[in-house]
Amino acid sequence: MRIESQKLNRKEVHSEFSRHKQTSKESMAHERKLKEAQELQAKTAAEATNTDYDRVKNLTYTIDDVERWEEKLSQKEARKDHGFSDYAQIAAKKYSKMIADIKPDLTKYRQQANIASMTHGSSDGTQEIVSEDAFYRSAHSLSYANHSAAPDELAVDRLVKDIEKQRAQRGQFSRRRAFDDEDEVTYINERNMRFNKKISRAYDKYTADIKANFERGTAL
């Protein structure tokens, strides 16, 4: 009886989750269709009055909207891949991307900063001022971390998930192949090289004898 009730509860939870997921998808689809319909209606009204729809739409944007849009475009341009230059640039780009993905806990940060700058009573009854160097360290700091500065379990879990994500992404890329100086050059660029390799895989077994005859000079 107990096992059957657990199965029913599990089934009900699963069905409720499915309904909630379907409802959220339907809501998003409805909002998207409503927005498209409103935009189409505005375009039709603008065409009926011989009005430039883009101009009317741009007049509805505020300065904050324009600044956010320009910032978005600048970030997109900064993330744009301009081709390979050197490995230092790739490392810097990867570092910037990882930093941008970090979501710091500002509340906890302020609490730690306040604790570091507070005064504490020592054992002899005097006030001992804790230096901010314990929190804001420089390159010449001799302060070391203590047990209270250890990261919590959530931070460790985030680090583990990030490392696993990087490993999964790294596994999707093919290994960089070294260039063979002794290999026969039958291409004019990288795209042509890939095309020639595809042709070779498909037809080399049929043209091996002809190619050998050409190399020996015995071809008819």
TrEMBL record:
Pfam families: SYF2. It comes from the Eukaryota. One of its GO terms (biological process) is mRNA splicing, via spliceosome. May be part of a spliceosome complex. The keyword Nucleus applies. GO terms for cellular component: catalytic step 2 spliceosome; post-mRNA release spliceosomal complex; Prp19 complex. This is Pre-mRNA-splicing factor SYF2. It is found in: Nucleus. Residues 1-36 are annotated as: Disordered. Belongs to the SYF2 family. Involved in pre-mRNA splicing. The keyword Zinc does not apply. Keywords: mRNA processing, mRNA splicing, Nucleus, Spliceosome.
